[in-house]
Design a protein that fits this description.
Elements (H helix, E strand, L loop, with lengths): L12 H32 L8 H8 L27 H10 L3 H5 L5 E2 L10 E2 L30 H5 L4 H20 L31 H15 L35 E5 L6 E2 L2 E2 L4 E2 L3 H8 L1 H8 L5 E4 L3 E2 L2 E2 L4 H10 L5 E4 L5 H5 L7 H11 L8 H11 L5 H17 L23 H14 L1 E5 L13 E5 L22 H6 L4 E5 L13 H9 L3 E7 L20 H11 L4 E6 L7 H5 L3 E8 L5 H9 L40 H4 L17 E7 L3 E3 L10 E7 L2 E10 L11 E9 L5 E10 L11 E10 L4 E8 L1 H4 L2 E2 L5 E4 L1 E7 L2 E8 L2
Parallel strand pairs: 3-7, 6-8, 7-10, 12-13, 12-14, 14-15, 15-16, 18-28
Antiparallel strand pairs: 1-2, 4-5, 8-9, 11-16, 17-21, 19-20, 20-26, 21-24, 22-23, 22-27, 25-26, 27-28
Bound molecules: 2-acetamido-2-deoxy-beta-D-glucopyranose (5 copies).
Amino acid sequence: MGFLISSHSRHSQDSQIQCEEMWRPWTLLFFLFLFLFFWSTLSLLPPFLGFDPLFSKLTAHSSNQLPDFPCKPPYQNSFPFCDTSLPTPTRAHSLVSLLTLREKISLLSNNASGIPRLGIPPYEWWSESLHGIAPNGPGVSFNGTIPSATSFPQIIVQAASFNRSLWSSVASAIAVEARAMFNVGQAGLTFWAPNINIFRDPRWGRGQETPGEDPMLTSAFAIEYVRALQGGSWERSEEIRNGSGVQRVMSENGESRDKLMVSACCKHYTAYDLESWHNFARYNFNAVVSQQDLEDTYQPPFRSCIQQGKASCLMCSYNAVNGVPACASEELLRIARKDWGFQGYITSDCDAVATVYEYQNYTKCPEDAVADVLKAGVDINCGTYMVRKTESAVKQGKVKEKEIDRALFNLFSVQLRLGLFDGDPRRGQFGNLGPLDVCTPEHKTLALEAARQGIVLLKNDKKFLPLNKNVAETLAVIGPMASTSKLGGTYTGTPCSSKTLYEELKQYVTKISYAPGCIDVSCLSEVAFDDAIRTAKEADYVVIFAGIDTTQEAEDLDRASLLLPGKQASLVSSVATASKCPVILVLTGGGPLDVSFAEANPQIASILWVGYPGEAGGKALAEIIFGEANPGGRLPMTWYPESFTRVPMTDMRMRADPTRDYPGRTYRFYTGSRIYGFGHGLSYSTLSYKFLSAPSKIGLSRTLKDGSVKGILKQEGKQVYSVDYYIPVDEMQNCISLRFSVQVSVVNSGKLDGSHVVMLFSRGPEGLEGSPEIQLIGFDRLHTVPYRSAETSFLVNPCEQLSVADEYGKRILPLGNHILSLGDIDHIVSIEID
Ligand SMILES: *[C@@H]1O[C@H](CO)[C@@H](O)[C@H](O)[C@H]1NC(C)=O
Ligand SMILES: *[C@@H]1O[C@H](CO)[C@@H](O)[C@H](O)[C@H]1NC(C)=O
Ligand SMILES: *[C@@H]1O[C@H](CO)[C@@H](O)[C@H](O)[C@H]1NC(C)=O
Ligand SMILES: *[C@@H]1O[C@H](CO)[C@@H](O)[C@H](O)[C@H]1NC(C)=O
Ligand SMILES: *[C@@H]1O[C@H](CO)[C@@H](O)[C@H](O)[C@H]1NC(C)=O
């Protein structure tokens, strides 16, 4: 999700900033007036409006939205759209039919106008909840009875836990806090998260917001997040009162597809992962993407988010895909709605309708941009462009009213599913949630647990860590990041509590000292180095914090280099050299860092990556350093060397092209050297794996039609040197019958318990051009106890997990030996025509 480029986007952001400065004194007066006005009105409200006095008192102090709602008396009996006994589509159609064209157009913005004659208040569609409720969108504010919300680790850190139930628990907690904030007028019910673009390039400023570079991992995350955020588990939750009178629509498999606790949004559709590089910006970038890469890299997370997650919102991105701006792409939006069965509303990224004309230059005039996106299937525009340009587009015959009706139908349907037209939300199913449900001890513990599970131990020479906290020794803490509590990454709200990393470490040792070494993260000066070196020399143990924060990588900010900023590396090396003992290096930030100097330096015994660990990150780190927790996180992205930055960021190709010196991207295709690989992560325990059971042969005959075996003749010059046989997956008849189970065990031969990630990879038959080097096909996180084995199993569907995308984006299943690997052991499964 972006920020508004200004409502007249062609003018630069500077003009917008100036405007805001100019307005400041007036705004303050205006808010003062508004406050006095609401305060006096609320206390005079007649009781039939349903405000209890306590509620009015609480919300009167909130500077945003009035706690107003549609279908309140006397409207609730006047309109069919308020009638909860009718099916959702009937109610939505009825509401559309009551509106004038002008009213309809006024609803095509995130800041949707109210329709007073129908008792409908304005609605702000834009709220954010990436890793906790955040005020990046105007729908959320912390100026009210709820001053803070639980700030979980940034998504890249959560992903490193490889723990599905963790992701689900976190999203459920966010949903509860979201409803609580909605109930006091501090949030909407439509949240624009998760960000599930593939972390394709290590420089991307928003890679931190994603679950990493692997499509299978990202898909798994999307499913858990969306299901839980939308309330998949509310029926199990005892905190939530059993509401009545809310109708349900059951899908074929009996689950409720209709009701939503809050709405989640799969974004940014699609092939978006560049903020700015040279002359390219996300607003004007045209991502040239092959069908092959779309099929096996860029699209899978969106497909899963929609098909299995059942997301109720999809956001189209700023960039064009193969020449067509994503929001204007009939083809892309049709795939989502028709092929994947998307049910919900499609929003543009902020001002991404304006950019179709103003940055992408895709249309000749604004009206054409509006017409194109509506025709493609966009339902709402974040920004004011559609509100301003749709009327003239209709007058010019470019937009038909029925296209607007379709958009409104989709929008109202989601609002209805959220219960927004069921009368007083505080009397509904989630109405009892309030300030006491935010920042609860359970949620804070979960934030700690998430950080504990996500922190990755990258290096640990001679088992230097953990330190023994019972030995009274002195600890020096070095580095500017140690003294900030701002380690949430992008889209962070106001945390329940915030302690610096230094303050948390202080709880564990009696003698501790601190020196920043660098003045800030950019570390341009060495003036504070001497002090840091002196501090380190006097201590027995030294923890140095280095890395990046959101001043280096963020929305609209990609990095140019993968090295530590400024003189940080020099600080780390100098401190390491001066210290009595080898030191511990702790890295912050979401993007990969080239820290090869540290990996190679024997004076740096241990390296930990904490990413953006959220509000409880300091405690989790201290627990790991002092051995109260055993690290089990694994990197969800490749750490490339600095030399990778010669690759143009704009090159979307995943596969390497040796003839053009293009190294490929992510662990699946990258052919160059790496600092740390995808899935890297050490433990304090030693673990060993075993395949307990897995087939060695899968026969395909039962699934084949005649003639479905295909061969590719591979030639070099005139010489034919091999033939690869494969089956197009869409010609196979019963893939489900081919599924097999792989049972594995893990033995912990260390002294500590640990929670450990098991990752199952596959490698297809050698030589099939364009197939990934290796591909994650399953993962699980297990508790392991010393000298005991823990077991798990993976279900593998060869058509899905062992197939590859061909150059036309069609899935094919190669015949021959597929190698399954688990740590350093392999198991061969041969796929044959029996
Ligand atoms: C939302 O729209 C209304 C008019 O419908 C306007 O008065 C208000 O200022 C807008 N709010 C924002 C945050 O743009
Ligand atoms: C909260 O109030 C403060 C002070 O009045 C103001 O500066 C700030 O912008 C407000 N924040 C939001 C999110 O409304
Ligand atoms: C809610 O209450 C109704 C009626 O009392 C009952 O039939 C239903 O099973 C309850 N649902 C849940 C999830 O407890
Ligand atoms: C689009 O047009 C504007 C002027 O209207 C121009 O400044 C800009 O460079 C053009 N962008 C592209 C991508 O052609
Ligand atoms: C996965 O996360 C859940 C939720 O925090 C936790 O209860 C569970 O212990 C974790 N599993 C492992 C193996 O760490």
